[in-house]
Amino acid sequence: MEVARPEVVIARGAPVAETVLAIVPLLREVANLEVHVDISTTTATRCSAEELEHLLIGLVLDAVDQRMALTVRERAIEGAPHVEIVRGTSKEPDGDGHELRTVTAIIERNGGELATSERRGGGIELILSLPIIPSF
Prior knowledge:
Layout: H1 16-30, E1 33-38, H2 49-62, E2 68-77, E3 80-89, H3 98-109, E4 113-118, E5 124-131
Parallel strand pairs: 1-2
Antiparallel strand pairs: 2-3, 3-5, 4-5
């Protein structure tokens, strides 16, 4: 017999832009940070506001000793809409990556992915992608 209800309920989380913009002043107190938010005010992932805050805090604390840029944008990945959060730094962070363990756990729990790439002009980009949950 088939189950009429899905085993996993995917709930819409907090609005991404609102959550990012709310925590930026706190992040700027501890880091030299440039932020670009190019996303609709209604865009949401499965992440709660608290999870999004932890993601951003973890990204910043991992590279707190250097200037960094955070870009939040929408992007299609394999035809599906995603929120992409990109942290760019001029060099690889010196830390042990402890802060990124929490970031990785939150990303994976919410159906996202984490990747790194070299930055044009030198440096490293850490790229988080989370599937967008449509509004109903």
